[in-house]
Structures are given as structure tokens and as C-alpha cells.
Amino acid sequence: MTSILHIEGLTKRYASGHEALSGVDLTIEEGEILALLGPNGAGKTTLISIICGLVMPTGGRVSVGGHDIARDYRKARGMIGLVPQEIALEPFETVWNVVRFSRGVFGKKRNDAHLEDVLRSLSLWEKRDAQIRELSGGMKRRVLIAKALSHEPRVLFLDEPTAGVDVELRRGMWEVVEGLRARGVTIILTTHYIEEAEEIADRVAVISKGQILLVEEKARLMARMGRKELRIELHEPIDSLPERFRDKGLELVDAGRAIVFHYDTRGERTGIAALLAELSEAGIVLRDISTRQSSLEEIFVGLVTEDTA
Looking at beta carbons, which pairs linking 109-117 to residues 24 or more positions away fall under 8 Å? Predict the structure, then answer.
């Protein structure tokens, strides 16, 4: 794949001495969806703001489509669409005028057909003549997306795009994102709904304390760091595990009604067959068993917790 966004040694230090970014290196491929995950204050918004030309970096380089954001700002910024966290829209302006004005800001020729396509894809066409103040919070957020798409960017930043949006609108929004990806738009997403990142992202980048902890394909990350959990439901509850099981990493839960066993799927042997046989030998009667794969959220929490330890 061809890279469209290249970040090298990016730093941001404020006058107070706080270092928001510390030597960030990141390359994003054209047409991919990258989920940028990190706790509050990790540097996500600062990173996005620098790329979009809203904040000046202390050091490092950023290029978009080969255009340096400092030396060739206009061309670099013209390739980027940004959907910010904050809803800042003119309340007495119509949806249509807001979107059309945004396209003009980037020096694009008038193209009402494109704007209509954008509004229809976001279920806003019927509201095109409505004033912003008349819209719900979810619709206002979709107007922000329409603004970001008005000038046909090749890279789209979505900074917490579904905050305050109901489940139905969130689902529709991700359908729009998939459609953009199909047209070759590169998407960088930040979200507190990590299950969304798990469902839609191609790769995951985790940032903490202004540094990138990892960048990896989502499926490979979950296979490499994810664990599986075997849950064994018991026919009768037990007060405690026999001594022979104390060092096997078992956990007695639900008031003695179930046993939980964590295992690594990468190992040659999981140990499950031997464990079940030993439980039977110990007279522990099983009622049911089930497995569960670690989620991306659990992996993320583990990474960030380890970094702050």
C-alpha cells in the first residue's frame, strides 16, 4: 500500500513545560481505517490538531500526500477533512449554507451535486433548509461530518464522532465511513467506544503520555495479545478448589458455581483437555463449558495500565 500520511519525530512542548507529544512516529496507508486509541490527556487531540494545522509543533515533520504541512500548508490542509469533538456551528445558518460555505473556504469550485450526495449519505438532505439551531445533537454532529467532506478530502479525521449520537445514528454513520473507505478515503478515528474500533478499524495505534506504544493490524494484535477464557459451569457449587488446582491459574467465581481458566491460544497446548480430566478425577462434575476471546478494550486497558505503572 502507498502511505498518505507520514509523521516523523513529532513533538509538542508548551510554555508550561508540559510535553504533550514526545517523538511520535507514525505512517498511515492510503485507504485504511486507523483507530487512534488512548486515555484522556494521552495526546490524541494534540496530534490531530498539529496535522490539521491548528497547533504548531515544537519539532518533527508531517507530510500529507507528499506535502509538508509547514512548507506547503495550503495543499496539505486541502487534503484533510476534520470532524472535531466540539460542535461549533452558526445556529441561525441553514445546513445547506454551512456545507456550501465550508467547500468555498478550501477554494473548491461550486459542486451542488457533490454536496447533495454528501447530505443524502448522512440523511441530512431533508434538513438542508433547516437552521442549525433546529437540529438535534446527533444531526449537528452529522453536519460536522458533511462540512468535513464538502471539499472532497483524501484523509478524514473523526475525533469522537459518535459522542452523543444514538445507536441507530451511530450505525448509519459507520455505514457512511465504510462507503468512504470504499472510495479510497483514508480515515483516522478516535473513539471512547472501543467496540466500534474493534469492528471497523484495519489497524490500531495506542498512544499514552504523548508516545505511540504500538501500531499493529487489529486482527494480528488481538491474536498476539488476546487471551481466551474458559468458563466451566459446575453441576453443584463448591466452597473452594482442591489444593492440587491452586497453581493452575484457576479462579472460582459466582459463589462457587463456576471456574474460570485463562489460556494462551498461541501455545502448542492449551491444557484444557488435561484440566477437564483432572477435574473429573477430583469428583467435580461439570454442567457446561464456554469460551470467550479477549476484546480490544481489554487489550487497550492492559497496555495503558502497564504504561502508567
Answer: 114/150, 114/152, 115/146, 115/150
Q: What is the pLDDT of residue 127?
A: 96
Is there a domain that residue 305 lies in? no
Written as nine digits, the cell of 304 is: 495503558
Question: Which helix H or strand E contains 120, and what residues bound it?
Answer: helix 112-121
Beta-carbon contacts of residue 256 (< 8 Å; ≥ 6 apart): 234, 237, 238, 239, 240
Q: Which three cell numbers stand for residue 253?
A: 467465581
Count of structural domains, the chain: 2
Q: Give whole-number Cα distances, 31 to 1, 111, 186, 219, 301, in Å.
A: 9, 24, 4, 17, 27
Give the CATH number for residue 91. 3.40.50.300
Domain that holds residue 53: 3-223
> Which residues of the chain are under the pLDDT cut of 70?
1, 163-167, 169, 192-193, 222-227, 264-270, 292-309
- Note the pTM of the prediction, 2 decimals: 0.72
The pLDDT tens digits for 244-287 are 887 777 888 888 889 888 776 555 556 777 888 888 888 888 88
106 shares its domain with 197: yes
